[in-house]
Amino acid sequence: MMKFGKNICILNVGGTKYAFTREIIKDFPLRRVSRLHNCASEKEVLEVCDDYDHERNEFFFDRHSEAFVFIMLYVRSGRLRFAPKMCELSFYNEMIYWGLESTHLEFCCQRRLDDRMSDTHTYFFEEDVKADEESGDQCMTVTGPTVNSEWNIRWIAKLRRIFEEPTSSIAGQILAALSVIFVILSMVILCASTLPDWETAKNRNTEEHRTIEAVCIGWFTAECGMRFLLSRNKYDFVRQPLNLLDILAISPYYILLVTTALLGESLEIQRAGTMLCMLRMTRVFWLVKLARHFHGLQTLGLTLRRCRSELVMLLVFMCVAMAIFSALAQLLEHGLDLEPRNHDYDSIPAASWWVIISMTTVGYGDMYPITVPGRMLGGVCVVCGIVLLSLPISFIYHSFLQCYHQQRFRSSRPSKSLSAEVLN
Asked: Measured in whole angstroms, how far is the alpha carbon of residue 193 from the centre of its chain?
């Protein structure tokens, strides 16, 4: 802990002073500043800053003062933008010094930075940055164990990029292609298993089918296990929806193996087999795994996440209209004591199905009004459905375009731009 100095700490950045308490320094969003709290001597302090005044408890940083003003605005408001009339690369260098990365920038500034890096082909020296960070974090000299530890960290970072960012290297592209092949193979087997002739073919080729299934499950298990071991935060890894789907789709196979080994072909295992068959159908969600390799599915997921309010609004519109039109349709077609009475509309829930397929202009024809007032109501229902659906869809469409261009922009970013791997 910071045992030296007073309770008030002064940061002098390029001549501009900022006063903070030690409690604020401890949880400061800028990593270089928060590291001061763990320094126990002036020697360790000088590993972080350029100079230190013990009497005034003032830390000197020979950095760009105007850039730090905008970085402090990010600390207060959560929005980081480039300083006016300052080179993007110079500002980015200041960000790296204080412990920020390009993902903290606003989207428009990220695009400016990557365009500038692409145009000038300027790449930063990752080794110098990592050496500076490790010297402050570990306060050690470069010895044999440190070199080995750094070598291991680099290999773990490369493996993590291979599994998490398939486009970062040829090995990542190969693994992504294999994953797609196994997903398609598993889906083909799952679909073929529902064919009428599948049971007969399965009885003749039991070993082949079991081998194919075991290979697919083995690949998905190995991939999920490696991604779990390489993840920085194991708890966050388990919480992610795609990873939960992986575990849910893989687990029935192993549960079936264990229960078969313990219980054999008994009545209990046959009853449990029904539930396992239902869980086995969750393999269809493996298609969602393709979102890791196709930007189109990533765009769809990002659009749905950003348009939650519009989707809720669309659902409310549909529910209100369905309640109104289903009640009126039931009354006009069946509720009044008139002949003929349409028994397809004998209840409001039954009429709700007709309202849904009418408002969405599907019109299966399984239900239709036969009275003149009912047909007039059907025409109004169709027109209202078109209007209500079109209102929020325009917002969803523009959000989809924005997400699409954002995903394409991120996928085309320079591979050697400084990323989280460098800063960590």
From this structure: 32
Q: What is the pTM of this model?
A: 0.50
Q: Taking Cα atoms as reference points, which of 11, 35, 13, 34 lies closest to residue 24?
A: 34
71-121 pLDDT, tens per residue?
Answer: 888 888 888 888 888 888 888 888 888 888 877 888 788 778 777 776 554
Render 66-99 in DSSP notation, one character per residue: HHHHHHHHHHHHS-B-PPTTS-HHHHHHHHHHHT
Burial 38-65 (b: 16+ CB within 10 A, else e): ebeeeebbebbbeebeeeebbbbbebbe
Question: DSSP letters along 351-402, please?
Answer: HHHHHHHHHTT---SSS---SHHHHHHHHHHHHHHHHHHHHHHHHHHHHHHH
- Give 130-161 pLDDT, tens digit per residue: 434 444 444 333 344 444 565 677 787 778 77
Quote the strand ranges of 214-307, DSSP E.
none
Q: Determine phi and psi for 408, rounding to 5 degrees.
A: -65, -35
Query: What is residue 140's three-state secondary structure?
Result: coil
CA pair distance 357, 378, nearest whole angstrom: 11
pLDDT digits (tens, 9 = 90+) for 384-419: 999 988 888 888 888 888 777 777 766 654 443 333
Residue 106, SS3 per DSSP: coil
Q: Are strands 8-13 and 58-61 parallel, antiparallel or unpaired?
A: parallel
Residue 101 near residue 95, CB atoms below 8 Å: yes
d(CA 167, CA 144): 33
SS3 assignment, position 256: helix
Residue 20 has phi, psi (to 5 degrees) of -140, 155
